[in-house]
Amino acid sequence: MMEFIAVNMAPIMFASLVFFLLIGYPVAFALAANGLLFFFVGVELAPLSNGTINLSWPLLNAMPERFWGVLSNETLLAIPFFTFMGIVLERSGMAEDLLDTIGQLFGPIRGGLAYAVIFVGALLAATTGVVAASVIAMGLISLPIMLRYGYDRRIASGVIAASGTLAQIIPPSLVLIVLADQLGRSVGDMYKGALIPGLVLTGLYIGYVMVLSILRPNSMPALPK
Q1: What predicted TM-score, i.e. pTM, was given to this entire model?
Q2: How big is the chain by its Cα radius of gyration, in Å?
Q3: Could you tell me the mean pLDDT of each successive run of 10 residues in the chain, 225 residues long?
Q4: For the residues of 17-45, what is the DSSP string, one character each?
Q5: Among candidates 125, 148, 120, 113, which has minimal Cα distance to 198?
Q6: Can you spell out the DSSP letters for 117-153?
Q7: Where in the cell is it found (predicted)?
Q8: Where exactly are the structural domains of the chain?
């Protein structure tokens, strides 16, 4: 039994991480606890792993240096600040006001609410790199309105989910910050490289909604004047 665990440490570790997440542990604590737990297990089972596990207790001496390296990384400091900005944007009601204003602008045309959601998604992405803040804000605000006016459920939920993920690529994106740190490039270079693709993706979303509003007009009606 111990030999089986030692040889299959990686899939067992992954399965335990999924278990921790499913029972409701926060991601940060689940990752830390899972890593430490299987480090201890791996050290004890290393002699039984036929050389596949190379762990020893002195490796723990590197943990303080890893902690300090992350805490002193100036690039990664942007992540909590952008996350905080996204929470402020969501809780203050600014996203709701923005969506309401753009919805009034595009509402009279067919598919107008879908256009409004895409534009607001792009603007929220350019304000905060937090995907969850964008999707939650637009989902809570726009989905009931779209369903109330007869939008197809699949189109409404798809537009909200797709436009919310624009925060992954349109600067300031938290993913780009992490990539810049890992690749050793400047964040500005990553932002320059992702800006045009992000705008192109936004245009493709708008084009898709435009074509769909022509082919299936009943699925996204215009708002009554």
Answers
A1: 0.67
A2: 23
A3: 71 88 86 85 74 72 78 75 72 73 80 85 67 64 82 88 81 80 84 88 92 88 77
A4: HHHHHHTT--HHHHHHHHHHHHHHHHHHH
A5: 125
A6: HHHHHHHHHHH---HHHHHHHHHHHHHHHHHHTT--H
A7: Cell inner membrane
A8: 2-71, 78-219
